[in-house]
Amino acid sequence: MKRFLAPFSVIFVIGQSFAQDDVTPLWQAFAKMEPAGIHDLYNDLDLPDTISAAGEKFYVTWESSDTLFLGHDGRINGRLVGENHEVTLTGTLYDNVIGSTETKVNKFKISIHGFEPYSNYLFAYFPANNNENIYYALSNDGYNFTAMNNGNRVVAADTVSIKKGLRDPHVLRAPDGWFYMVNTDMKSAEGWASNRGMVLMRSRDLISWEHSTVHFPDKYKGKNFANVTRVWAPETFWDDTYDNGDGTKGRPLVYFSLLTNDGTISYDKVFYAYANKDFTDLEGEPTHFFDRGKSTIDMDIVYNPVDQKYHAFYKNEGDGGICKVTSYSLMPASGKATGSQWSKPSKALQQTTEAVEGAGVFKLINQNVWVLMYDCYNNGHYQFTTSSDLENFKFVQDTKTSGAFTPRHGTVLPITAEETAKLMKAFPTKDFEPRVIDIPDSIGVCDGKRVVAPCSGTKIIPYVKVGDGEWSETTDLTVKKGANVTLGPHPWDGKIWSWNGPDKFKSTDREVTLKNVDGDNSGYYTVVYTNETGCKSQAKIKIVVDDPDKPYVEEDTTTTRIAKDNRKFIRPLQINGKPVYFDLLGNRLKAKPRNAVTIQK
Predict the structure, then answer these.
(1) What does DSSP assign to residue 503?
(2) Is residue 181 domain-shared with residue 271, that is, in the same domain?
(3) Which of 30, 273, 392, 485 sits most deeply, having the most CB atoms within 10 A of its CB?
(4) What is the pLDDT of residues 247-291, one digit of tens each?
(5) Which of 546, 574, 592 is a domain's end point?
(6) What is the distance, to the nearest Å, from the Cα of residue 49 to the centroid of all Cα atoms in its chain?
(7) In sequence order, what are the beta bridge partners of 257?
(8) Cis bond upstream, residue 491 (ω within 30)
(9) CA-CA distance, 115 to 172, in Å (whole number)?
(10) Residue 165 near residue 127 (C-beta atoms within 8 A)
(11) Cα–Cα distance for residue pair 271/525, rounded to 1 Å
C-alpha cells in the first residue's frame, strides 16, 4: 500500500514557496489529520473531534467505508484471520469562521492488522561449539523457553551436512505452506576458516525435513566464489515480487556473508542468491547485498508494515555490537549500485556492554511489539530487548540458560496451538504447559472470508482456597463465618487484573485474600483480565458466607428491553464486550433502536 504523505507542508505558487506557517490555519489543520499507525493498524484509532492550528479550532467528522471492520469512531470492530484488510476512512474538516461553509476532505487507507492465529513460540538453535546440531525449545511469552525432546537434538548434523556440523539455524514460515531452514555447514573444531557452504532444508510441519547442501568450491568451480573460506549465517527472506515464470510470484531469497582467500572478497560482505523452486540449490551467482566497509556478518532482515521499511540487523564483526540499516525496497533502484538502497548504519542497538552476535528479530503475537535478541556468546546467555518501532530498544531480560537449554545463534518464530501439539508429540517436552489462544468469535463474512472480533480474551481459570487448604477450581463456594478465602485465578503470569466485589471490594492484584469473612463478604466477585493484546476476559466467583446474622440473598438482576411501541422486544447480547441487538424474530439489528428503553422487573 502506498504511503500517504501529509499534504501541503509546502505550497508552490508562481515560482514562490511558502512554509507551512504561511498557509491558512485551515490548511495547517488539514495537514494534521492523518491518524497514526494506519499502514498496519493493531489498536483502535484515537480520532479527534477538533484539530487546532495557529490558535484556531476546527471541527472534524469521520466516516468509515466498512463498519464491519472499522467504526466511524475509529474503533476496530473486526479482523480477517491471517491477513490485513483495507478500509477507507474519510475525514471532513470544517472551517469554524462564522458564515463560512468551507470544508476540506481527506481520505486515508487504513490497513487493519489481521488476527494472527498463533499461540506459542519455537526457538531453533544449536547449543555449543562441541555440539553443532539443531535443537528446539518452546515458550508461551517469547522470553522464557523450555527445551524440547527431553533436551536432545531434533536434527542430527551428521545426517544432513558435509562438515557434520550445523550452526546458526534460521527458520522462515513462507506463504507457500513450507518452512524453510538454512544453516551454516561447519565444524568449528576445524577452525573458523573451514566453512565452505550451507545446508538448505524445508518442511511442512517443522518435524520432517528435506535437505540439500550447497558446496561453493564445487558449485562455483573456476570462479572466485570457489575460493571461499567461510559462508556464514545464511538466512532467508520471502520475496513476493519474484516472478517464477509460471504465473506465480514469490521465492525465498537466501542471504549470507562471504569471505574468500584470493583477495576478491577481502573481508566479510553480505551477498544473496535466490533458491531454486525446490529449495535444493541456489540459482546463479551470489550478488553483493550490503557491507559497512568492514567485516559484516549475521544479517537478519524483517519488514515492518507500519513504517513500510525493511530493517536489516547485522553484527559489526571485529568491532562488536549490533547495528542496522533500513530501506523502502529490498533491491536497489534500476541502474543503481548494489547496496545503495540501504540507509546509513544506525548506532549500536544492543543493551549491554557484553560482546554479542547472532541478532534475531521477531514480533510478539498480535502485538505491535518487536523483540531483538542476541547471543552474548562469551558469557553463555541470550539477551532479549523490545521495541515498538524497531528504532529504540529496551532491555527485558537475560534468558536463563542452564541444564538442557543452552542456546546459541538461532531463530524464534510464532507457531499455532496445533503445531505446538504435534511438535510436543514428536519431541516430548517436560514441564511445559502450552498456552492456547483461541481465534475470536465470527461476526460476519467479507468476500467469502470469515471476519472475527478484534481480539481473543484469555480464558480465566478460577482457583480458590480456604485457609491453608488446597486450591480448587470453582466459581461457587460456601464457607463458614471467620474463614480466610484466597482467590488466585490463572493465568498466573497474567498482565492486568481488576477485581470488584461485595462491601466495596476492589483490587488490581491477581491473587487476593479475604480475611475473617462474614455475611458482608457474600456475593459475586468479578475479575477482569486484560492480556498482552489488550483484550479483556471476565469471570465471576460466587462466595456465600454461612452467617446467620447476615444471611445471603440472591440479587435479582433480570432485565428486559422493550420498545416503546410494544411491538418489539430488544434482547441484548454481548459479543467481545460490545452489545448487539435483536428483534423478537431473532433478526440482528444494525444498532441499538432509538426507541428502546430498559425496564427493571
Answers:
(1) T
(2) yes
(3) 30
(4) 999 999 999 999 999 999 999 999 999 999 999 999 999 999 999
(5) 546
(6) 31
(7) 232, 270
(8) yes
(9) 19
(10) no
(11) 61
For the beta sheet containing 394-399, the strands, ordered from the edge strand earlier in sequence to the opposite edge, are 357-363, 370-376, 381-387, 394-399
Give the three-class secondary structure for 136: strand
User: Residue 54: which residues within 8 A CB-CB, separation 6 or more?
Assistant: 21, 25, 28
Q: Which residues in the chain land under pLDDT 70?
A: 1-22, 96-100, 493-494, 556-601
Q: Which three cell numbers stand for residue 428?
A: 516430548
Q: Residue 109: in which H helix or E strand, if any?
A: strand 103-112
Return the number of other C-beta atoms located less than 10 Å from residue 470's C-beta.
7
Which strands sit side by side in the sheet containing 146-147, from one edge to the other? Answer: 146-147, 135-139, 120-126, 408-415
| 360-390 as b/e: b if 16+ CB within 10 A | bbbbbbbbbebbbbbbbbeeebbbbbbbeeb
The count of structural domains within the chain is 4
Q: Using alpha carbons, list the distances in angstroms from residue 282 to 168, 230, 234, 369, 382.
A: 18, 16, 12, 33, 31
CATH of the domain at 520: 2.60.40.10
Q: Which among 371, 403, 426 is the end of a domain? A: 426
CA atoms within 13 A on the CB side of 93: 23
Contact status, residue 592 vs residue 579, Cβ threshold 8 Å: yes
Whether 129 maps to a domain, the answer reads: yes
| 171 and 193, same domain (yes or no) | yes
Does 204 share its domain with 133? yes
Q: Whose grid coordinates read 461553509? A: 101
Please name the amino acid found at residue 525. Y
Residues 132 and 24 in one domain: no
What CATH number is given to the structural domain containing 342?
Answer: 2.115.10
Among the listed residues 29, 18, 91, the one whose alpha carbon sits nearest the alpha carbon of residue 56: 29
Instruction: Report pLDDT for 601.
Output: 32
What's the one-letter identity of residue 299? M
Same domain, 351 and 299: yes
**The C-alpha cell of 92 is what?**
471532513
Assess if residue 434 is contained within a domain: no
Give the 3-state secondary structure of 477-499.
EEEECCCCEEECCECCCCCEEEE
Question: Domain range for residue 593?
Answer: 559-600
**Is residue 289 one of the residues assigned to a domain?**
yes
In a domain, 433, yes or no: no
How do residues 284-332 score in pLDDT, each as one tens digit? Answer: 999 999 999 999 999 999 999 999 999 999 999 988 799 999 999 999 9
Grid cell locating 409: 545463534
pLDDT (0 to 100) of residue 283: 97
Q: Which residue has cell 538448505?
A: 200
Hey, which residues does 211 pair with through a beta bridge? 201
| pLDDT score recorded for residue 14 | 34
504 exposure class (CB count in 10 Å sphere: 0-12, 13-18, 19+): exposed
Is there a single domain that holds both residue 19 and residue 95?
Answer: yes
Report in angstroms the alpha-carbon separations of 514 from 151, 312, 465, 467, 502.
Answer: 43, 53, 11, 10, 11
Q: Are residues 346 and 225 in the same domain?
A: yes
Q: Do 336 and 400 fall within a single domain? A: yes
Residue whose C-alpha is closest to residue 28's, from 49, 10, 47, 4: 10
Q: What's the confidence (pLDDT) of residue 566?
A: 40
